[in-house]
Amino acid sequence: MKQIKVLGSGCTKCTKTAELIDKLAQESGVHVNVTKETDPQVIMGYGVMSTPAVVIDEQLVHSGSIPHRDQVQTWLTQE
Amino acid sequence: MFAIFTQFADWLTYSIFGLSPDSKLGDAVHFFIEDVSKIYALLIVMIYVVALLRASLNVEHVRDYLSGKNRGIGYLLGSGFGAITPFCSCSSIPVFLGFTSAGIPVGITMSFLLTSPLINEVAILLLMSLLGWKFTLLYVVIGISVGTLGGFFLDSIKAERWLQSFAAKALAQGQQNDQTNHSQTATAMPLAQRHEFAKDETLEIFSRVWKWVIIGVGLGAALHGFVPDGWIEQYLGDGQWWSVPAAVLLGIPLYSNATGVIPVMESLIINGLPIGTTLAFCMSTVAASFPEFILLKQVMQWRLLATVFLLLLVSFTVVGWIFNAFSSFL
What we know:
The structure holds two protein chains of two kinds. In chain A, 39% of the residues lie in helices and 27% in strands. By secondary structure, chain A is of the alpha+beta class. By secondary structure, chain B is mainly α. Chain B has one domain. In chain B, α4 (71-84) packs parallel to α6 (106-118) and α7 (121-131) runs parallel beside α13. Classes of the chains: A alpha+beta, B mainly alpha. At the A-B interface, α2 of A face α3 and α5 of B. Chain A: It comes from Neptuniibacter pectenicola.
């Protein structure tokens, strides 16, 4: 199961990002665990400056905006 | 070039709604329709064009660029980049930490963060179309100066003493490391990608600010139509020195972004509020807001937070007084 973290200080964009990933994962039947990370110290640890950012299995894959649907789809199908 | 919006408002207000041009209500409705249609049209065009130009500029590049600069020019550059770099205010904390852990002095980082809410393409566009280029230029110069001097001041009182301990540690480490990991190299962005970015940006910003325009212009229209002529001038004119600090204090609990407050500024000035008082009110509303200061608590101790807050209030007040004093030369 993929561990997906959405980094961000809790603004609407971050919530939307987490919701989008959750929804698309359900639609395509992929099992994921989406969590939101709001601790600035942890966010700094990933070297992220623009939120929302997405971390999949400890790999930073995206930062600075709500990701596009097809982007999310690629992450979900990649092994 | 803007006449078309006046004609549109004439047509809608007088022909369709059947309001009389002489009535207070007709006046207010006309003002509202003209400004909203004009602002919406300009916003869409301008955000797109600006986004197209700055598609490859991001906070990561700015950090890499600033981390090698000496302090003298650093504040000005920090403030300047704050004006032109796009970033969502909810990213302030990660940006602060990103800059800090790259060893950039707190003052330069704060120059960036202080200027950022004050100046952006939407604010400049609104100022240009509503208040003219002179006022716009003035606004930009003042905004950059507040950021530059504010940052300089914070470093000169050694503000880094009052960071939260983990942030202070990150700063110390960053300054030792001497920036070896320049994360990305700037690459030329193809036009198609720029267009994609600009399209997203336009949609995103417009969907965020359109309601602010309605609220701002609505308030402006109400002031325009219903506050008696000369009332503001009589009670809040430049004779009353206290009206500037009062405007600054009033602006704190009112939280708005530049988009919402500029249409209000327009009608305040038309109604005779002195230019300095108006500027002070506007800057305080935009840059000094409690929700954002509470967020900064995560990286700063109360003392630093209070210092920054006071610094802003004092500088806006001084800006207001200076402009009231010199407004006759504008």
